[in-house]
Amino acid sequence: MTAPQGARILVVDDEPQIRKLLKVTLQAHNFEIHECADGEEAVVQASIVHPDLIVLDLGLPGMSGMDVLQRIREWSQVPVIVLTAKEREEDKIAALDGGADDYVTKPFGMGELVARIRVALRHVAKTTDEPVLRFGPLIIDLAQRQVDLEGSPVKLTPTEYEMLKVLASNAGKIITQRQLLQQVWGGHHHESDSHYLRVYVGHLRKKLQEDPTRPRFIQTEPGIGYRFLLQDDVGK
């Protein structure tokens, strides 16, 4: 599935050179670009323009990028890709836990950013009430709680199934360790219980016949969480 052409993208960054670079490059990929330089304007523009995706710098004057994200998430689930000069894991995790769909660290390659934008748009395009998720040879029937790989059923424990469901339902997005722990085990677990995740992801990979060094379905984001791969992004 390809990303929709002509998708509206709102670029929020206080650096004119970055906005110009993004505008020229993304327009060359047939995206419709809207831009603004501060947080307050970003919230207003998001409500007026109704973008298909937002590229959001965290280091904004006035209202911070995290505050913008929080405000927008109060009423919209539009995909948000955070563009940040902050390289600490804590900052990336905070952005993802706060509702960002992905992040790209400055300085960044335009090719990577365009690829991330396409992944986010494809994820939205395939987010429906359809009870069957298909990823190449892997089929997950949510209604029947049935998982098939290359035509054969995969036997999963209830916990393994719940973990696979959360990851696959958010294909293309990074799911943080905290988000995964909360959605699979409930709120009584703490981030320090991340060893649960490593154990269960290991079990899942084995049952999905996956080489951890060359992930076919589940990609580890070191120190942050996991990303279930859309099949046309495997190997990128």
TrEMBL record:
<dbReference type="GO" id="GO:0000156">
    <property type="term" value="F:phosphorelay response regulator activity"/>
</dbReference>
<feature type="DNA-binding region" description="OmpR/PhoB-type">
    <location>
        <begin position="130"/>
        <end position="230"/>
    </location>
</feature>
<dbReference type="InterPro" id="IPR039420">
    <property type="entry name" value="WalR-like"/>
</dbReference>
<dbReference type="GO" id="GO:0000987">
    <property type="term" value="F:cis-regulatory region sequence-specific DNA binding"/>
</dbReference>
<dbReference type="InterPro" id="IPR001867">
    <property type="entry name" value="OmpR/PhoB-type_DNA-bd"/>
</dbReference>
<keyword id="KW-0804">Transcription</keyword>
<keyword id="KW-0597">Phosphoprotein</keyword>
<feature type="modified residue" description="4-aspartylphosphate">
    <location>
        <position position="57"/>
    </location>
</feature>
<dbReference type="Pfam" id="PF00072">
    <property type="entry name" value="Response_reg"/>
</dbReference>
<keyword id="KW-0238">DNA-binding</keyword>
<feature type="domain" description="OmpR/PhoB-type">
    <location>
        <begin position="130"/>
        <end position="230"/>
    </location>
</feature>
<dbReference type="GO" id="GO:0032993">
    <property type="term" value="C:protein-DNA complex"/>
</dbReference>
<comment type="function">
    <text>Member of the two-component regulatory system KdpD/KdpE involved in the regulation of the kdp operon. Upon phosphorylation by KdpD, functions as a transcription regulator by direct binding to promoter regions of target genes to positively regulate their expression.</text>
</comment>
<dbReference type="Pfam" id="PF00486">
    <property type="entry name" value="Trans_reg_C"/>
</dbReference>
<dbReference type="GO" id="GO:0042802">
    <property type="term" value="F:identical protein binding"/>
</dbReference>
<dbReference type="InterPro" id="IPR011006">
    <property type="entry name" value="CheY-like_superfamily"/>
</dbReference>
<dbReference type="InterPro" id="IPR036388">
    <property type="entry name" value="WH-like_DNA-bd_sf"/>
</dbReference>
<dbReference type="GO" id="GO:0045893">
    <property type="term" value="P:positive regulation of DNA-templated transcription"/>
</dbReference>
<keyword id="KW-0805">Transcription regulation</keyword>
<keyword id="KW-0963">Cytoplasm</keyword>
<dbReference type="InterPro" id="IPR001789">
    <property type="entry name" value="Sig_transdc_resp-reg_receiver"/>
</dbReference>
<keyword id="KW-0902">Two-component regulatory system</keyword>
<feature type="domain" description="Response regulatory">
    <location>
        <begin position="8"/>
        <end position="121"/>
    </location>
</feature>
<dbReference type="GO" id="GO:0005829">
    <property type="term" value="C:cytosol"/>
</dbReference>
<protein>
    <recommendedName>
        <fullName>Transcriptional regulatory protein KdpE</fullName>
    </recommendedName>
</protein>
